[in-house]
Write a structure and sequence with these properties.
This is Secreted protein. Helix content is about 70%, strand content about 0%. By secondary structure, it is mostly helical. It folds into two domains: about 1-30; about 80-205, no CATH class. The relative contact order is 0.10.
Length: about 210
């Protein structure tokens, strides 16, 4: 066999090997970011994306995969102890004012959570960017921000029932707790498990 023929065979073999390697990587990558993995990673956000896309699984998973690509490696900044105490005090104040001014309290809570998210390093160019980034790092609690947003915006154009506002503030507590942790690796403060023990302040909001 001539030298040129040997070179041609070697090049062809290398191209085939490279193609097989790429295919194997693609299959493995797809398995890691496939529907099952995305559903486990995003939890309720997976169902929300599915609903937004009218049940089109591929479209929903493409959106969630793109979010991962943009925000998975976002660096969440530590929160100094003094800042943490200030945020907790402000959140407590919002809860205490809820009884007298529920709509204003929900609007203030939305602004506070947004400010806290920015301090932790989440993007704030648009509200959607912030929510998408939070959905990657706090997928189990980001719905609290979405409900705050819905209730707050709704309160500007119509009279939102007080119970709806209360529920939005209650559900936002989990996200607030996730964001206010001193360091990203800290665990969320444990709620009191005993029925007769003290309850979180947000759950003491009076019903109308």
């Amino acid at each position: 066999m001539s030298t040129h023929a040997l070179i041609a065979v070697a090049v062809t073999t290398a191209v085939i090997f490279l193609g097989v390697s790429v295919a194997v990587w693609a299959v493995g990558h797809g398995a890691r970011t496939g529907g099952g993995t995305l559903r486990r990673r995003f939890g309720p956000e997976y169902d929300a994306a599915l609903a937004r896309h009218g049940g089109e699984r591929k479209a929903a998973e493409r959106e969630l995969s793109e979010r991962l690509g943009r925000y998975e490696h976002l660096r969440v900044s530590p929160l100094p102890a003094a800042a943490r105490e200030q945020y907790v005090a402000r959140w407590t104040g919002i809860q205490e004012r809820f009884v007298d001014a529920p709509a204003r309290s929900v609007a203030d809570a939305e602004l506070l959570v947004g400010e806290l998210a920015r301090d932790r390093g989440f993007p704030s160019t648009t509200w959607d960017d912030m929510a998408d980034a939070l959905s990657v790092h706090a997928p189990r609690s980001v719905h609290g921000l979405r409900e705050l947003r819905t209730a707050s915006v709704g309160g500007r154009s119509r009279e939102v029932p007080t119970e709806e506002l209360r529920e939005a503030l209650v559900r936002a507590r989990d996200l607030f707790e996730d964001l206010v942790r001193a360091r990203p690796e800290d665990h969320r403060p444990q709620r009191h498990a005993r029925r007769g023990g003290p309850r979180p302040a947000v759950n003491r909001l009076r019903r109308p």
